[in-house]
Amino acid sequence: HGYIEKLGFTPEIDVFVGTGLVDMYSKCGCLNSAISVFELMKVKNVLTWTSMATGLALNGRGNETRNLLNRMVESGIKPNELTFTSLLSAYRHIGLVQEGLELFQSMKTRFGVTPVIQHYGCIVDLLGKAGRLQEAYEFVLAMPIKPDAILLRSLCNACSIYGETVMGEEVGKALLEMEQKEKKVSGSESEDYVALSNLLASKEKWVEVEKLRKEMKERRIRTRPGYSFV
């Protein structure tokens, strides 16, 4: 910060420098310094507000983000898709489930931002990590847009962690079917096969496990070193 000022850049005036400092201090855990720079800035853009709101969430003050978003709108700057992606990711990272759900609900009704797949994915991951698997599953079913592989993989992984084999098997099969339709092989796909195989093995469905192995061979999909394939 001091070096930047020696170079002649003043965060109070330069929006890019100021925003960078807000982001840096927030990620370093120096929230008070981030707030000081933010409040001193005479010009703020959408990234400035987003960085400050995300910093509050990441540093245990997520309950203050709503007021900050209101201030943002009052200043004439509207939050955008990136704002909500950043905030929801922060909530997901520290497990603020209720705050994340409320923020998601307010996106369109209060701020006029239509959720996209990244926002839906954050909510599914947030619920999954909290063990609220049925809620996450119903959320996916109610989505107005088609879930992608990343979203389904997140739910499948949560099912594995919490031992929800029935739901995990259903989601895992849907994930593999989606990847097969896209006709492309990725490193993640081999992990998906392993995850589903382990779920099936835990239920002693050996015939289906063998079927997955055969399918992998036919598609020339290899498991990565360090992964178990029961």
TrEMBL record:
GO terms for molecular function: RNA binding. Pfam families: E_motif, PPR, PPR_2. Coiled coil: none annotated. PPR repeats lie at residues 45-79, 80-110. One of its GO terms (biological process) is RNA modification. It comes from the Eukaryota. The keyword Repeat applies. InterPro entries: E_motif (IPR046848), PPR_At4g14850-like_plant (IPR046960), PPR_rpt (IPR002885), TPR-like_helical_dom_sf (IPR011990). Keywords: Repeat. This is Pentatricopeptide repeat-containing protein. It comes from Noccaea caerulescens.
